[in-house]
Amino acid sequence: MTQGRLSKVKKFRISPEEAKVLANKVELANMTESEYLRLMISQKPNDYPKIRILLKELINEVNHIGTNINQIVHNYNSGFYSEDDKDRLVAYMRKLNIEVNKVYETINKGKFDN
């Protein structure tokens, strides 16, 4: 960041307990207090490493499930579609929904540290 962009100085008061919480979060995030507060103001999910990891894992899982679904669709188009394929397809879709819901719940409930 350039100095011109960071030209405003803000002063505010917080309680000793809030100062401790801030200090702990700053230390965990390995940032300065100013950097941490700017991050909290911007609220950019990409700035949260744990969310990025969760999303990367979800994308990988979706890709694996998508490959399996493509194989089932290929069997269907080739005339080899069976009841087992249908059961597998339903199972893959359930697994996909479970994985998406896990990530959603984790992010929504704030089960990650900033």
Question: How would you describe this structure to a colleague?
Answer:
- With about 110 residues, this protein is mostly helical.
- It has 2 domains: about 15-45; about 50-110.
- The protein contains 4 helices and no strands.
- The chain has helices spanning about 15-30, 35-40, 50-75, 85-110.
- Helix 3 packs antiparallel against helix 4 (about 85-110).
- The two termini are about 20 Å apart.
- The mean pLDDT is about 80.
Oligomer: single chain
Amount of beta strand: under 5%
- What class, by secondary structure content? mainly alpha
What count of structural domains?
2
Radius of gyration: 23 Å
The helical percent reads: 55-70%
Shape: elongated
SSE order: HHHH
Describe the biggest sheet? none
Terminus-to-terminus distance: 21 Å
Spans with pLDDT under 50 lasting ≥5 residues? Answer: none
Count every helix, treating DSSP H or I runs of 4 or more residues as helices.
4
Mean pLDDT: 81
Count of distinct strands: 0
